[in-house]
Task: structure prediction
Amino acid sequence: GESVGLHLPTLSVQEGDNSIINCAYSNSASDYFIWYKQESGKGPQFIIDIRSNMDKRQGQRVTVLLNKTVKHLSLQIAATQPGDSAVYFCAEIPKGSARQLTFGSGTQLTVLP
Amino acid sequence: GAGVSQSPSNKVTEKGKDVELRCDPISGHTALYWYRQSLGQGLEFLIYFQGNSAPDKSGLPSDRFSAERTGGSVSTLTIQRTQQEDSAVYLCASSLLGLAGIADTQYFGPGTRLTVL
Result:
């Protein structure tokens, strides 16, 4: 559903389980995508990025998947930990642009003990 | 090294007053960005500085908003005659190059929470 005010899309997972957070984008000319993590009261923190010429990229415990056909981006977090609880949102840089845009209000991930 | 810093961390003001928000980017970063984040919302681009180029002001919501970057480093975002709808967290970010076609990571400061009463 649509997010209004505090009502972010939410995802609750058990500690140790894998998390999948999704993001849709609309600009087919987007060249570069970034996932950020934002903890309460803090600025966004870079997690992982991916270029449009790739469909998968792995980091430490995180994997980003890009499906350009349906303009969909996902972030997978393996073995989710309590410290992963935060709001996650994606951003993109269109070709020819140096500044970023973001999509929606992000997803609130809550890790349950 | 030090990250992006912003001051003040919190600002409460009365409607109609002017406010100035400050951003100190990471040393050596040529690009600086201002964003606004309303409660529970995503980031809204405001303005972007890159080196000595004219800033990209396309995101500023009204002429009450302005920003400057002195000496290619510190930036000040000024909001004149503040309105209640200006209440938000104002985030600053910097990146090494900020050039079109080159993707470099933006590093964010902790933000300034502005409340207009």
